[in-house]
Amino acid sequence: MGPPDGLSGVTPSNWRTYLVTQESLSAGRSTRAVVEAAIDGGIDVVQLRDKDRSARERYELGRELRELTAAAGVPLIVNDRVDLARAIDADGVHVGQSDLPVSVARELLGPDAIVGCSAWRVEEAEAAERAGADYLGTGAVYGTSSKDVEPEKDGIGPEGVAAVVDAVDVPVFGIGGITRENAAPVIEAGATGVAVISEITAAEDPTAATEHLAEVVGNV
Prior knowledge:
The protein is α/β, with parallel strands linked by helices and 220 residues long. 39% of the residues lie in helices and 15% in strands. Strands 1-2-3-4-5-6-7-8 form an 8-stranded parallel β-barrel, surrounded by 5 helices.
């Protein structure tokens, strides 16, 4: 598995805005439509999540998104499922603490794949980096309504992001309740970028929402 044409040299250190898909929050639009709009707005990376879909449905959707993102030169990451990432020739996978270990994902996907990992504790972040993670997602920064998380993980704040950033050398992305109004402190805490679901997916105009978020992050 390697980057498709047009993605050589595109690494997590280049990303600033990161869209995680979830059609149930998209105000009646399809995930494809949201991703198309986000690409038009300049999104840096897309993660296929849509956990409420079956594996077959995520595969079919993933094939569509792979075509869209590859044509636009935007990396496509798959949430949790290493097998799905391989099946649709995604650029990589993002795993959590209860998923396959980073080292196993790396072994299965190969040295050129991008492997991200969720880590909100410093010890988790350090372990993921040692295991070969290319980047980390940390949060929920401001709390989240898109998934169930343990109370101590819900609302770690920019200071929690800073603690993870200070502990590792790989790029760190804040996620959880991030909007264009509160994204700046996450970047000021040292995050490379921000990952969002609702801020783009539920927006009246996802293209404009992406542009506004990118503007805020880029001006910090």
